[in-house]
Write a structure and sequence with these properties.
Two copies of one chain form a homodimer. Helices cover 40% and strands 18% of the residues of chain A. By secondary structure, chain A is of the alpha+beta class. The first copy, chain A, folds into two domains: 78 residues, Arc Repressor Mutant, subunit A; 108 residues, 2-Layer Sandwich (Nonspecific Lipid-transfer Protein, Chain A), CATH 3.30.1050.10. In chain A, the strands form two sheets. Chain A has a five-stranded mixed beta sheet. In chain A, helix 2 crosses helix 7 and helix 6 crosses helix 7. At the A-B interface, helix 1, helix 2, helix 6 and helix 7 of A face helix 1, helix 2, helix 6 and helix 7 of B. Chain A binds a DNA duplex through helix 3 and helix 4.
DNA sequence: CGGGATCCCCCGAGATACTG
DNA sequence: CAGTATCTCGGGGGATCCCG
């Protein structure tokens, strides 16, 4: 048994052999947002040793999860893209992200938010909410140095990193923004205490809070 | 940033800090089946260093995922049990197991099946199938040295490790059993080529194959 | 005998410098 | 931009030992 295998004919063991390697889940999180260059990945994963990123990308390519695209690029840049098999990890990684977010109250010291993590968080949040019936609405969300935007058309929510050219509402996350996503505070309270600052129609903040929901884990009194 | 953290305020990063540690996913897989003693875990995880198991259990306890129950046990044994927070990992780990199983054709050299992994596989398989309308049916499934049993009542499927006292059908998995679960071969073919051996009513094998389904990943021709 | 703790070795991760 | 090279160091693997 190699240092990566578990010696068990088990689906979870096979998944653990891939995802249990350090940094792999975060690399895949960023690639789930879209194809990325090596330097994009380095920028979105502060602290990752560059040799480790190179090793992981090779492993993921060998395992059929990622493809390295070099040819047919006029700008000669190299792009890493998920295969269909890699994209199949989306539901599982979203479920893990939802589980992790359920006890995530405030950032630990020095913790940052990246465009990819914010985009992922909003994608997961969109699965937990239910957009009110209305025409197309575009949000831009800022959290720390990260920016993402979301376009909501009926039940359809599309989230992408970066600015939106023409947002209906711009939200800037404050210290209690996570509480707003959990429904622990109302949009009105969030505005009052600086949990969120907005530019645009305040009524749209109610729509936002209904569309994007990430509940907190209920603290069981009896912990069994 | 410690050697376990990622320095990102991100749900998936938080999950990775727990599940990215070696052996942790398999420990949780076994505990999802039910409370287990230290020695049960050692037996179900061949190759795990005992000190590492002890370390992991302490970390999981500190993180509120596992509780250690010592008191009130007449036989003085210690049992590890998932908290509500730990049990919340069920859907995410099942999704990971489904992803891993989708490309799992045959065991690699020396790979084994444990009671817990077989039980987990059947639980995941029950989510992918649809039991035909019938009265209560009990199956006993053997794969390698592992044994599990399942009780199917309508849409309700309950899977547990070990023998069933009174099974309606006993299945012993052969080399092509995985193909049967994927629907790549019919129950008749599976019987003919030794992919499965049964004791009991052969018609129940059709019901089994409809109830427990784990599809193979479709091999995309265009791998994007 | 169940439930660990201790020890040593070594590989993989971190950090940083360097290169095609 | 996209990695490779090199070094150091901590955590995992493996065996053994210990304690109630």
């Amino acid at each position: 048994m190699g240092s990566r295998e578990y010696g068990q004919f088990c689906g979870l063991a096979r998944a653990a052999e891939v995802l249990g390697q350090r940094w792999t889940m975060l690399i895949l999180r960023d690639l789930l947002v879209g194809p990325r260059r090596y330097s994009d990945l380095v920028a979105g994963l502060p602290g990752i040793p560059t040799n480790l990123l190179a090793t992981r990308l090779k492993e993921l390519e060998r395992d059929g999860i990622v493809v390295r695209e070099a040819r047919d690029r006029p700008d000669r840049s190299i792009v890493y893209r998920l295969t269909a098999r890699g994209a199949d990890l989306g539901p599982a990684l979203d479920a893990l992200g939802r589980w992790g977010a359920a006890t995530m109250h405030a950032p630990r010291d020095g913790e940052i938010v990246t465009d990819a993590s914010l985009t992922t968080a909003l994608r997961v949040a969109a699965q937990g909410g239910r957009a009110p019936d209305q025409q197309s609405v575009t949000y831009t969300i800022r959290a720390g140095d990260a920016v993402a935007h979301a376009v909501v058309r009926g039940r359809q929510v599309e989230v992408a990193p970066g600015e939106s050219p023409s947002p209906d509402l711009v939200l800037t996350a404050g210290p209690g923004f996570r509480d707003l996503l959990a429904g622990a505070i109302t949009p009105e309270e969030a505005l009052a205490d600086g949990s969120v600052e907005i530019t645009g129609d305040p009524d749209l903040l109610d729509a936002f809070a209904a569309t994007f929901v990430v509940p907190y884990a209920t603290r069981a009194l009896d912990n069994r």
